[in-house]
What does this fold into?
Amino acid sequence: MTSKMESVIQKSLSALLDENIFLPKLNGSTRQRAYQSLVSILSTPNHVNKSFLRISLENGRVIRIPAFRVQHNNTLGPYKGGIRFHESVNEDEVVNLAKLMTLKNALHDVPFGGGKGGVVINPREFSEKELNLICKKYVHYFSDSLGTEKDIPAPDIGTGEREMDWMMAEFKSIHPGETYRGSFTGKSIMNGGSLGRREATGKGVYYSYKYLLYDFVENNKSLLDKNSDNPFVQTALSHRNRALTIAVQGFGNVGSVAALEAYRCAYLQNKIVAVSDRNITLYNDDGLDIPALIHYTNEHEGDLPTDQTELSKHDIKATVQDRDDLLELDVDVLFLAALEDQIHTKNQKNIKSTIIVEGANAPITQEADKYLTDNGVLIIPDILANAGGVIVSYLEWMQGRETQFYKEEEVFDLLYDKMSTTFETVLPKFFSDLFSLRQNCYNHSVMKLSTILYRQGKLY
Ligand code: NAD
It folds into this structure.
């Protein structure tokens, strides 16, 4: 993940310099110096906060758990990014995810910087009481750097509204009298959360796919005709007017909502033939019953049914396959909504889908990204597709400050509005040049950050 992001950022910087759109008013050496300053600023985080949380388990044992809060850049506003509870969390991963948040917020014009947090645990191995203690300790250890105007965490893998509620309550007791509703987003509705926040990322992920394949194609026929040699135009057009088969990797918050949106969509004829989770893949050539699967996971701690007995008991028609089979199925579209690095050099050649939507952050390695892009696969990148969560987090933060709350449909209207504005900015350029969509998005973010950093006098 590190090398991919670095290389895409580097390519953006070079492209901006070559095309003379990087600070065009500066001349020769001044421009070169500003450019070098920007490279340093974007490639390093402002702060890496690390601690070992001291946790007293219910069995009386005391353990120390590594925990991180990384603040990459706050040029556009307070740091913002989720807290991940997962056993594979490490410092490099958190730094890179924080960097991605800086670029994502810049791309979608969200007035936040980039941050990220992580705790090295498998939350399934801890009791509710122990998890509550871990959340409180996390806030306690990093309390000086968190806050409504400083750094605003949100949920990520392994955390949800329960954890955000606990964390906000701890923040409030550590900082009496300070504003606290905007200190965490992704909270429960009763505790100041926004309607629609839980569904926001998955809805945004599906919206990015629908926008590209339907709204954009319908409204930009002459641009697409003019660029009919572009392999991505060919991929987008080859999917018109026919039913599309979809496989969704990861059936958690993001994947299940995106799958439901696809299942219900009135604009495109989708057939979701496969979904997977940490255990298995479920497959049905005639299409899976997504609402029934969501109902099942809600009642079974998030897991899909793993055998025929369980499927029959709940009247769900599907065959059970190995978890990683899903990626190599002969389907039109893959939604990746699980973890990083799922498509890599070992399986890239077996991928048959021609459209991939990144709901997860960085689910494709650098090498695989190049291989697939060179082969005409249209990848809707994480930075573009999965910003729904941070956009609605921004709405939650605003609602918390104003103590005025939007209706759910207002939240989704504002979400789609913001995402469409970004699509309108990057898609025409993407279809008329030969940069990947990921590269186009990075170019846009880097250009925005460079202009603002320059105006703030930070590039001297
Ligand atoms: P989640 O914990 O709710 O769901 C993750 C799902 O992936 C679960 O169904 C899990 O069983 C499954 N999974 C785990 N390992 C797998 C594997 N190897 N193969 C297939 N499935 C596997 O997490 P989430 O909130 O849905 O997040 C998913 C991804 O989206 C993460 O990469 C996260 O960083 C990213 N993301 C989430 C949000 C958000 O608002 N939740 C926002 C932006 C990005």
